[in-house]
Amino acid sequence: MSRARVPLRVAYVPGLAPGMGAPPAGSGRRSEWLPTGRSMLFAAARHALYHGWKLLGLPAGSAVLVPAFVCDTVSGPLRLAGARLAFFHVRADLSPDLDHAAELLRRDRRIRALLWYRYLGFDVGVGEVRRFCRRHDLFFIEDCAHTLPVPPAGTLGDIAVFSLRKLLPVTNAGALLVNARGLPPPPEPAWRRADGRYSEVLRAKEHSLRDVHAESRPGNAALARRARRLHIAYVAGLHSPKRSVHGPVRRGLREADRPLSRMARPLPPDDLSRRVVANADLRAIARARRRNCCEYLRQIGDLALFTRVPAGSAPLAFPIRVPDRDEFRLRLARLGVAAGTYWPEWILPDGARRGFPVERALADGLLALPCHQDLGPVDIEFACRAVKRAWRG
Protein backbone atom coordinates (compact mmCIF):
# COMPACT_ATOMS: atom_id res chain seq x y z
CA MET A 1 0.00 0.00 0.00
CA SER A 2 1.21 3.50 -0.78
CA ARG A 3 3.09 5.27 2.02
CA ALA A 4 1.73 8.64 0.88
CA ARG A 5 -1.64 8.25 2.58
CA VAL A 6 -3.06 5.35 4.55
CA PRO A 7 -6.79 5.85 5.18
CA LEU A 8 -8.18 5.35 8.67
CA ARG A 9 -11.69 4.90 7.33
CA VAL A 10 -13.36 4.38 3.97
CA ALA A 11 -16.76 6.07 4.11
CA TYR A 12 -19.75 4.70 2.24
CA VAL A 13 -20.82 8.06 0.77
CA PRO A 14 -18.91 10.96 -0.80
CA GLY A 15 -18.30 14.06 1.28
CA LEU A 16 -19.42 17.63 0.74
CA ALA A 17 -16.33 19.65 -0.11
CA PRO A 18 -16.17 23.45 0.11
CA GLY A 19 -17.49 25.03 -3.07
CA MET A 20 -19.75 22.14 -4.09
CA GLY A 21 -22.79 24.06 -2.90
CA ALA A 22 -21.77 27.36 -4.47
CA PRO A 23 -24.26 29.05 -6.83
CA PRO A 24 -23.71 27.54 -10.31
CA ALA A 25 -22.35 29.67 -13.11
CA GLY A 26 -25.20 31.26 -15.02
CA SER A 27 -28.40 32.43 -13.40
CA GLY A 28 -31.13 29.80 -13.31
CA ARG A 29 -28.88 27.12 -14.81
CA ARG A 30 -30.43 23.66 -15.15
CA SER A 31 -28.45 20.47 -15.41
CA GLU A 32 -28.29 19.15 -18.95
CA TRP A 33 -30.00 15.93 -17.91
CA LEU A 34 -33.03 17.85 -16.55
CA PRO A 35 -34.76 18.76 -19.83
CA THR A 36 -37.24 21.61 -19.51
CA GLY A 37 -40.82 20.37 -19.59
CA ARG A 38 -39.90 16.69 -19.16
CA SER A 39 -38.35 16.61 -15.71
CA MET A 40 -38.94 17.56 -12.12
CA LEU A 41 -36.57 17.73 -9.16
CA PHE A 42 -37.99 16.47 -5.86
CA ALA A 43 -36.68 16.09 -2.33
CA ALA A 44 -36.77 12.29 -2.69
CA ALA A 45 -37.15 9.59 -5.32
CA ARG A 46 -40.25 8.27 -3.55
CA HIS A 47 -42.03 11.56 -4.35
CA ALA A 48 -40.95 11.22 -7.98
CA LEU A 49 -42.33 7.68 -8.06
CA TYR A 50 -45.67 8.72 -6.56
CA HIS A 51 -46.16 11.60 -9.00
CA GLY A 52 -44.81 9.54 -11.89
CA TRP A 53 -47.50 6.91 -11.32
CA LYS A 54 -50.16 9.60 -11.21
CA LEU A 55 -48.83 10.99 -14.48
CA LEU A 56 -49.52 7.68 -16.26
CA GLY A 57 -53.25 8.38 -15.88
CA LEU A 58 -54.22 4.75 -15.33
CA PRO A 59 -57.70 3.69 -14.18
CA ALA A 60 -58.35 3.07 -10.51
CA GLY A 61 -57.40 -0.47 -9.50
CA SER A 62 -54.58 -0.75 -12.04
CA ALA A 63 -51.65 -2.90 -10.98
CA VAL A 64 -47.90 -2.78 -11.51
CA LEU A 65 -45.42 -5.65 -11.70
CA VAL A 66 -42.65 -5.05 -9.16
CA PRO A 67 -39.55 -7.21 -8.53
CA ALA A 68 -39.80 -9.00 -5.19
CA PHE A 69 -36.29 -7.90 -4.27
CA VAL A 70 -37.16 -4.32 -3.41
CA CYS A 71 -37.57 -2.01 -0.41
CA ASP A 72 -40.68 -0.41 1.05
CA THR A 73 -39.70 3.06 -0.19
CA VAL A 74 -40.71 1.75 -3.63
CA SER A 75 -43.84 -0.18 -2.69
CA GLY A 76 -45.14 2.49 -0.29
CA PRO A 77 -45.35 5.41 -2.76
CA LEU A 78 -46.93 3.23 -5.45
CA ARG A 79 -49.63 2.02 -3.05
CA LEU A 80 -50.27 5.56 -1.82
CA ALA A 81 -50.66 6.65 -5.44
CA GLY A 82 -53.39 4.04 -5.90
CA ALA A 83 -51.46 1.19 -7.53
CA ARG A 84 -51.88 -2.49 -6.70
CA LEU A 85 -48.62 -4.43 -6.57
CA ALA A 86 -47.90 -7.81 -8.14
CA PHE A 87 -44.46 -9.09 -7.11
CA PHE A 88 -42.48 -11.21 -9.56
CA HIS A 89 -39.34 -13.28 -9.03
CA VAL A 90 -35.78 -12.03 -9.27
CA ARG A 91 -33.04 -14.56 -9.98
CA ALA A 92 -29.90 -14.97 -7.88
CA ASP A 93 -27.87 -12.92 -10.39
CA LEU A 94 -30.38 -10.03 -10.07
CA SER A 95 -31.90 -10.69 -13.48
CA PRO A 96 -35.70 -10.61 -13.95
CA ASP A 97 -37.77 -13.78 -14.11
CA LEU A 98 -40.02 -12.59 -16.91
CA ASP A 99 -41.67 -16.01 -17.23
CA HIS A 100 -43.11 -15.43 -13.77
CA ALA A 101 -44.05 -11.86 -14.74
CA ALA A 102 -45.88 -13.19 -17.81
CA GLU A 103 -47.72 -15.73 -15.67
CA LEU A 104 -48.91 -12.95 -13.33
CA LEU A 105 -49.94 -10.91 -16.34
CA ARG A 106 -52.12 -13.75 -17.61
CA ARG A 107 -53.84 -13.97 -14.23
CA ASP A 108 -54.49 -10.24 -13.84
CA ARG A 109 -55.46 -8.19 -16.88
CA ARG A 110 -55.45 -5.00 -14.84
CA ILE A 111 -51.66 -5.03 -14.72
CA ARG A 112 -50.71 -1.99 -16.77
CA ALA A 113 -47.09 -1.30 -15.90
CA LEU A 114 -43.81 -2.91 -14.84
CA LEU A 115 -41.10 -1.44 -12.63
CA TRP A 116 -37.53 -2.65 -12.92
CA TYR A 117 -34.48 -1.65 -10.92
CA ARG A 118 -31.01 -0.89 -12.13
CA TYR A 119 -29.74 -2.78 -9.10
CA LEU A 120 -26.71 -1.09 -7.54
CA GLY A 121 -26.24 0.83 -10.79
CA PHE A 122 -25.75 -2.25 -12.99
CA ASP A 123 -27.98 -2.73 -16.05
CA VAL A 124 -28.87 -6.40 -15.65
CA GLY A 125 -32.03 -7.23 -17.62
CA VAL A 126 -33.01 -3.66 -18.50
CA GLY A 127 -33.17 -4.22 -22.27
CA GLU A 128 -35.01 -7.51 -21.78
CA VAL A 129 -37.57 -5.81 -19.54
CA ARG A 130 -38.09 -3.00 -22.03
CA ARG A 131 -38.85 -5.48 -24.83
CA PHE A 132 -41.23 -7.38 -22.53
CA CYS A 133 -43.12 -4.17 -21.78
CA ARG A 134 -43.43 -3.28 -25.44
CA ARG A 135 -44.63 -6.78 -26.31
CA HIS A 136 -47.32 -6.69 -23.62
CA ASP A 137 -48.24 -3.00 -23.97
CA LEU A 138 -47.11 -2.11 -20.46
CA PHE A 139 -45.70 1.15 -19.18
CA PHE A 140 -42.05 0.69 -18.23
CA ILE A 141 -41.07 2.46 -14.99
CA GLU A 142 -37.28 2.59 -14.95
CA ASP A 143 -36.12 2.81 -11.34
CA CYS A 144 -32.68 4.40 -11.41
CA ALA A 145 -32.46 5.07 -7.68
CA HIS A 146 -29.07 3.30 -7.61
CA THR A 147 -27.41 5.18 -10.44
CA LEU A 148 -26.84 8.62 -11.94
CA PRO A 149 -28.72 10.08 -14.92
CA VAL A 150 -25.92 9.24 -17.34
CA PRO A 151 -27.26 7.60 -20.55
CA PRO A 152 -28.44 4.94 -21.07
CA ALA A 153 -29.78 5.09 -17.48
CA GLY A 154 -33.09 6.93 -17.43
CA THR A 155 -33.60 6.87 -21.19
CA LEU A 156 -35.33 3.52 -21.69
CA GLY A 157 -38.40 3.78 -19.44
CA ASP A 158 -41.60 5.64 -20.18
CA ILE A 159 -40.75 7.38 -16.93
CA ALA A 160 -37.59 7.16 -14.86
CA VAL A 161 -36.88 8.08 -11.24
CA PHE A 162 -33.56 8.86 -9.56
CA SER A 163 -32.43 9.09 -5.93
CA LEU A 164 -29.55 11.53 -6.22
CA ARG A 165 -28.80 11.56 -2.50
CA LYS A 166 -27.40 8.04 -2.81
CA LEU A 167 -24.60 9.07 -5.19
CA LEU A 168 -24.08 12.81 -4.72
CA PRO A 169 -23.27 14.69 -1.50
CA VAL A 170 -26.72 16.26 -1.19
CA THR A 171 -28.99 16.46 1.82
CA ASN A 172 -32.04 15.28 -0.15
CA ALA A 173 -32.74 15.14 -3.88
CA GLY A 174 -34.63 12.91 -6.28
CA ALA A 175 -35.81 13.38 -9.85
CA LEU A 176 -38.54 12.32 -12.29
CA LEU A 177 -37.88 12.11 -16.04
CA VAL A 178 -40.68 11.66 -18.57
CA ASN A 179 -39.61 9.98 -21.83
CA ALA A 180 -42.84 8.71 -23.39
CA ARG A 181 -44.13 11.20 -25.96
CA GLY A 182 -47.76 10.44 -25.20
CA LEU A 183 -47.46 11.50 -21.57
CA PRO A 184 -48.01 15.06 -20.38
CA PRO A 185 -45.15 17.00 -18.80
CA PRO A 186 -44.90 16.60 -15.02
CA PRO A 187 -47.07 19.26 -13.37
CA GLU A 188 -45.71 21.41 -10.58
CA PRO A 189 -46.78 19.72 -7.32
CA ALA A 190 -48.49 21.57 -4.50
CA TRP A 191 -45.29 21.95 -2.53
CA ARG A 192 -45.41 21.83 1.25
CA ARG A 193 -43.43 24.24 3.40
CA ALA A 194 -40.63 22.57 5.36
CA ASP A 195 -41.12 22.70 9.11
CA GLY A 196 -38.52 23.12 11.82
CA ARG A 197 -38.05 19.40 12.35
CA TYR A 198 -37.21 18.78 8.70
CA SER A 199 -34.87 21.77 8.67
CA GLU A 200 -33.02 20.16 11.58
CA VAL A 201 -32.75 16.91 9.61
CA LEU A 202 -31.26 18.79 6.65
CA ARG A 203 -28.76 20.63 8.83
CA ALA A 204 -27.68 17.35 10.46
CA LYS A 205 -27.21 15.72 7.04
CA GLU A 206 -25.21 18.67 5.74
CA HIS A 207 -22.98 18.63 8.83
CA SER A 208 -22.43 14.88 8.42
CA LEU A 209 -21.50 15.24 4.72
CA ARG A 210 -19.03 18.00 5.51
CA ASP A 211 -17.49 15.81 8.22
CA VAL A 212 -17.11 12.94 5.74
CA HIS A 213 -15.08 15.23 3.50
CA ALA A 214 -13.05 16.65 6.39
CA GLU A 215 -12.13 13.29 7.91
CA SER A 216 -10.41 12.19 4.69
CA ARG A 217 -8.15 15.26 4.61
CA PRO A 218 -4.57 15.11 5.95
CA GLY A 219 -4.30 16.09 9.59
CA ASN A 220 -7.81 15.04 10.58
CA ALA A 221 -7.01 11.65 12.08
CA ALA A 222 -8.98 12.37 15.25
CA LEU A 223 -12.12 13.12 13.23
CA ALA A 224 -11.66 9.94 11.20
CA ARG A 225 -11.26 7.85 14.38
CA ARG A 226 -14.42 9.40 15.85
CA ALA A 227 -16.36 8.67 12.65
CA ARG A 228 -15.09 5.10 12.76
CA ARG A 229 -16.30 4.63 16.35
CA LEU A 230 -19.71 6.11 15.54
CA HIS A 231 -20.11 3.87 12.51
CA ILE A 232 -19.23 0.75 14.52
CA ALA A 233 -21.87 1.70 17.09
CA TYR A 234 -24.43 2.35 14.36
CA VAL A 235 -23.90 -0.98 12.61
CA ALA A 236 -23.82 -2.86 15.92
CA GLY A 237 -27.09 -1.26 16.96
CA LEU A 238 -28.79 -1.72 13.58
CA HIS A 239 -28.05 -5.42 13.27
CA SER A 240 -28.00 -6.49 16.90
CA PRO A 241 -30.25 -9.48 17.67
CA LYS A 242 -31.22 -7.68 20.88
CA ARG A 243 -34.40 -5.77 20.14
CA SER A 244 -33.62 -3.30 22.92
CA VAL A 245 -30.47 -2.26 21.03
CA HIS A 246 -31.53 -2.20 17.40
CA GLY A 247 -35.00 -0.79 18.09
CA PRO A 248 -33.86 2.79 18.80
CA VAL A 249 -31.53 2.80 15.78
CA ARG A 250 -34.25 1.68 13.39
CA ARG A 251 -36.81 4.02 14.94
CA GLY A 252 -34.35 6.87 14.53
CA LEU A 253 -33.99 6.11 10.83
CA ARG A 254 -37.76 5.98 10.40
CA GLU A 255 -38.22 9.20 12.33
CA ALA A 256 -35.68 11.04 10.17
CA ASP A 257 -37.66 9.95 7.10
CA ARG A 258 -41.06 10.84 8.51
CA PRO A 259 -41.17 14.37 7.02
CA LEU A 260 -40.94 12.74 3.57
CA SER A 261 -43.98 10.51 4.11
CA ARG A 262 -46.54 12.90 2.60
CA MET A 263 -46.63 12.27 -1.14
CA ALA A 264 -49.42 14.41 -2.59
CA ARG A 265 -47.89 17.61 -1.17
CA PRO A 266 -44.16 16.85 -1.12
CA LEU A 267 -41.35 18.90 0.32
CA PRO A 268 -39.34 20.78 -2.32
CA PRO A 269 -35.66 20.00 -2.81
CA ASP A 270 -33.56 22.26 -0.61
CA ASP A 271 -31.32 24.97 -2.05
CA LEU A 272 -28.04 23.24 -1.15
CA SER A 273 -29.08 20.07 -2.96
CA ARG A 274 -30.17 22.05 -6.03
CA ARG A 275 -26.79 23.76 -6.21
CA VAL A 276 -24.77 20.56 -5.74
CA VAL A 277 -26.82 18.79 -8.43
CA ALA A 278 -26.37 21.69 -10.86
CA ASN A 279 -22.60 21.79 -10.27
CA ALA A 280 -21.96 18.03 -10.45
CA ASP A 281 -19.92 16.61 -13.34
CA LEU A 282 -21.94 13.42 -13.70
CA ARG A 283 -19.80 11.82 -16.39
CA ALA A 284 -16.61 12.29 -14.36
CA ILE A 285 -18.34 10.87 -11.27
CA ALA A 286 -19.52 7.86 -13.26
CA ARG A 287 -16.00 7.23 -14.57
CA ALA A 288 -14.56 7.33 -11.04
CA ARG A 289 -17.15 4.88 -9.77
CA ARG A 290 -16.52 2.47 -12.65
CA ARG A 291 -12.76 2.71 -12.11
CA ASN A 292 -13.14 1.78 -8.44
CA CYS A 293 -15.46 -1.14 -9.22
CA CYS A 294 -12.97 -2.46 -11.79
CA GLU A 295 -10.26 -2.34 -9.13
CA TYR A 296 -12.47 -4.31 -6.74
CA LEU A 297 -12.99 -6.88 -9.49
CA ARG A 298 -9.24 -7.17 -9.95
CA GLN A 299 -8.54 -7.70 -6.24
CA ILE A 300 -11.57 -9.59 -4.86
CA GLY A 301 -13.43 -10.64 -7.98
CA ASP A 302 -14.02 -14.14 -6.60
CA LEU A 303 -16.57 -12.65 -4.15
CA ALA A 304 -18.29 -10.39 -6.68
CA LEU A 305 -21.91 -10.70 -7.70
CA PHE A 306 -21.15 -9.23 -11.15
CA THR A 307 -18.16 -10.18 -13.28
CA ARG A 308 -18.01 -6.98 -15.33
CA VAL A 309 -18.67 -3.26 -14.99
CA PRO A 310 -20.79 -2.07 -17.94
CA ALA A 311 -19.39 0.79 -20.01
CA GLY A 312 -21.22 4.01 -19.30
CA SER A 313 -22.64 2.81 -15.96
CA ALA A 314 -22.50 4.74 -12.69
CA PRO A 315 -22.48 2.06 -9.97
CA LEU A 316 -23.86 2.84 -6.54
CA ALA A 317 -21.56 0.28 -4.91
CA PHE A 318 -19.66 -2.95 -5.52
CA PRO A 319 -21.78 -5.96 -4.43
CA ILE A 320 -20.24 -9.08 -2.94
CA ARG A 321 -21.74 -12.26 -1.50
CA VAL A 322 -20.72 -13.03 2.07
CA PRO A 323 -21.77 -15.46 4.80
CA ASP A 324 -23.54 -13.96 7.81
CA ARG A 325 -23.88 -10.62 6.07
CA ASP A 326 -24.66 -8.49 9.14
CA GLU A 327 -21.74 -9.86 11.16
CA PHE A 328 -19.46 -9.40 8.15
CA ARG A 329 -20.59 -5.77 7.88
CA LEU A 330 -19.74 -5.22 11.54
CA ARG A 331 -16.28 -6.76 11.06
CA LEU A 332 -15.63 -4.36 8.19
CA ALA A 333 -16.79 -1.42 10.30
CA ARG A 334 -14.27 -2.37 12.98
CA LEU A 335 -11.60 -2.50 10.27
CA GLY A 336 -12.52 0.97 9.04
CA VAL A 337 -14.72 0.22 6.02
CA ALA A 338 -18.35 1.31 5.82
CA ALA A 339 -20.52 -1.03 3.76
CA GLY A 340 -24.20 -0.99 2.81
CA THR A 341 -27.00 -3.57 2.73
CA TYR A 342 -29.73 -4.00 0.08
CA TRP A 343 -32.05 -4.77 1.73
CA PRO A 344 -32.42 -6.10 5.29
CA GLU A 345 -35.61 -8.03 6.02
CA TRP A 346 -37.20 -5.25 8.04
CA ILE A 347 -37.57 -2.92 5.03
CA LEU A 348 -38.79 -5.52 2.55
CA PRO A 349 -42.40 -4.68 1.64
CA ASP A 350 -45.37 -6.71 2.77
CA GLY A 351 -46.10 -9.25 0.06
CA ALA A 352 -42.43 -9.87 -0.71
CA ARG A 353 -41.32 -11.38 2.60
CA ARG A 354 -42.83 -14.83 2.09
CA GLY A 355 -42.78 -17.12 -0.91
CA PHE A 356 -39.63 -15.58 -2.40
CA PRO A 357 -36.67 -17.63 -1.08
CA VAL A 358 -34.15 -16.49 -3.71
CA GLU A 359 -34.96 -12.86 -3.05
CA ARG A 360 -34.71 -13.38 0.70
CA ALA A 361 -31.31 -15.02 0.21
CA LEU A 362 -30.20 -11.92 -1.72
CA ALA A 363 -31.50 -9.70 1.08
CA ASP A 364 -29.59 -11.74 3.65
CA GLY A 365 -26.35 -12.28 1.73
CA LEU A 366 -25.47 -9.22 -0.34
CA LEU A 367 -23.06 -6.62 0.97
CA ALA A 368 -22.25 -3.42 -0.94
CA LEU A 369 -18.76 -1.93 -0.78
CA PRO A 370 -18.18 1.80 -1.31
CA CYS A 371 -17.00 2.84 -4.78
CA HIS A 372 -17.84 6.55 -4.75
CA GLN A 373 -15.99 9.35 -6.49
CA ASP A 374 -13.96 10.48 -3.45
CA LEU A 375 -12.11 7.17 -3.33
CA GLY A 376 -8.86 6.40 -5.07
CA PRO A 377 -6.67 3.32 -5.53
CA VAL A 378 -5.25 3.47 -2.00
CA ASP A 379 -8.77 3.48 -0.53
CA ILE A 380 -9.89 0.52 -2.63
CA GLU A 381 -6.75 -1.40 -1.67
CA PHE A 382 -7.48 -0.64 2.00
CA ALA A 383 -11.06 -1.86 1.59
CA CYS A 384 -9.99 -5.05 -0.19
CA ARG A 385 -7.49 -5.87 2.56
CA ALA A 386 -10.24 -5.36 5.12
CA VAL A 387 -12.56 -7.70 3.19
CA LYS A 388 -9.89 -10.40 3.11
CA ARG A 389 -9.24 -10.02 6.85
CA ALA A 390 -12.96 -10.08 7.64
CA TRP A 391 -13.34 -13.22 5.53
CA ARG A 392 -10.66 -14.94 7.58
CA GLY A 393 -12.61 -13.97 10.69
State the helix count.
12
Largest sheet: 7 strands, mixed
Secondary structure tally: strands: 9
- Which class of secondary structure composition applies to the elements? alpha/beta
Bin the helical content. Answer: 25-40%
Q: Summarize the helix and strand pattern as letters.
A: EHEHEHEHEEEHHHHHEHHEH
What is the fold's blueprint, element by element?
Elements: E1 39-42, H1 45-55, E2 63-67, H2 72-80, E3 84-88, H3 98-107, E4 111-117, H4 126-135, E5 139-144, E6 159-163, E7 174-178, H5 196-215, H6 221-239, H7 243-257, H8 271-279, H9 282-300, E8 317-321, H10 325-334, H11 357-365, E9 366-370, H12 377-392
Parallel strand pairs: 2-3, 2-4, 4-5, 5-6
Antiparallel strand pairs: 1-7, 6-7, 8-9
Account of the protein in words:
The chain has helices at 45-55, 72-80, 98-107, 126-135, 196-215, 221-239, 243-257, 271-279, 282-300, 325-334, 357-365, 377-392, and strands at residues 39-42, 63-67, 84-88, 111-117, 139-144, 159-163, 174-178, 317-321, 366-370. With 393 residues, it is an alpha/beta fold. The strands form two sheets. Strands 1-7-6-5-4-2-3 form a seven-stranded mixed β-sheet, with helices on both faces. The radius of gyration is 20 Å and the shape is globular. The mean pLDDT is 92.
